[in-house]
Amino acid sequence: MNAFLQRAVRSPALAFVGLALVWEFCVHAFAPSPRLLPALSAIAQDAWSVWPQLVRGFGRTLLETVLGFATGALFGFFCGTVFTYSRWMERSVFPLFVVSQTVPVVAFGALIVIWFGNSLLAKVMTAFFLTFFPVTVNTLRGLKSCDPQRVALMKSFGAGRFVMFFRLAVPSALPQVMVGLRVAIGLSLIGSVVGEWFGETVGLGVMLMEAMNADLVVRLWVVMFACGLMGALLYGLLTFVERRLVWWRSES
C-alpha cells in the first residue's frame, strides 16, 4: 500500500490534477476575464464543439511531426558520425550547420513553401529543419566521449573499425544521442505547427491561426492543450524507448 502511494505521489498525473484544481479554484474565486483565464469546463466544451476538426488537425500535425523528426534524426545521426571521424568535415561544414540555426523558422518556412509548394513535404521539411541540429550535436559529443581505454582494449583484441563503431562507439554515445532526440521531438512539433501557417487547410497550426484571426481566446487554449498533449505523448514514447534501449544507463 505504501509503495502504491509513493508511486501515485510521484506520478505526473497527480501534478496535472493538482494544477487543474488550482486553475478551477482561481477561476471561481477571482472571476478573471475569460480572455485572461477561461475555465477548464469552457475549454472542454469548445473542444467538443470542434471535435472532428480537432481530431483531423491532430492527426495531420502528428504525421508531419513524426516524419520530420524521423528524417531529421537520421540525418543528424549521420552528420554527427561523419563529423566525428572526419576532422576537416567538422571544421568546414559544421559551422554552416550552426549558422543555419540562426535563420528564423518563419523565414525558412516561407522559403520551403516557395520551393516545394503547399504540400505535406513542405511541412515535413520545416520540422526537419529544427530537428537535425540537436541530434547532430549530441551524436558528435557522444561519439567523441568514448572511453580511450576501451578503444585501446578493443584494438588490442584486433577489432576493426566497424566492430568498434557498432559495439563500442554507438552504445557509448546512445545516452547523449537520446538527449538530442528528446530535445528534437519538441522542436519538430514546433516546426510542423509553424509550417502549417503558410497556406495549409488542416492541422493544429491552421486552427491556431484561425483562432488568432477570429479572436477566439478559448479556442487558442484548446489548440495549446492539443499541442501539449501531442508533445507529452511523443516525449513519453521516447523516454520509454530510451529505458528499453539504453538499459545499461540505469545500472551505472
What does this structure look like?
The protein is mainly α. The chain has a single domain, classed as Orthogonal Bundle (MetI-like fold). Helix content is 84%, strand content 0%. The chain contains 13 helices and no strands. α10 packs antiparallel against α12. The radius of gyration is 22 Å and the shape is globular. The mean pLDDT is 88.
Features:
252 residues; 0% strand; MetI-like fold; globular; mainly alpha
Find the structural class using helix and strand composition. Answer: mainly alpha
Summed up, the domain count is 1
Looking at this structure, what is the CATH superfamily?
MetI-like
Provide the CATH topology: MetI-like fold
Name the CATH class: Mainly Alpha
Proportion in β-strands:
under 5%
How many helices? The count is 13
| SSE ordering | HHHHHHHHHHHHH
Per DSSP E runs of 2 or more residues, the count of β-strands stands at: 0
Form type? globular
Largest sheet: none
Runs with pLDDT <50, length 5+? none
Radius of gyration, whole Å: 22 Å
Give the proportion of residues in helices.
over 70%
Mean pLDDT: 88
CATH architecture: Orthogonal Bundle
Ends distance: 29 Å
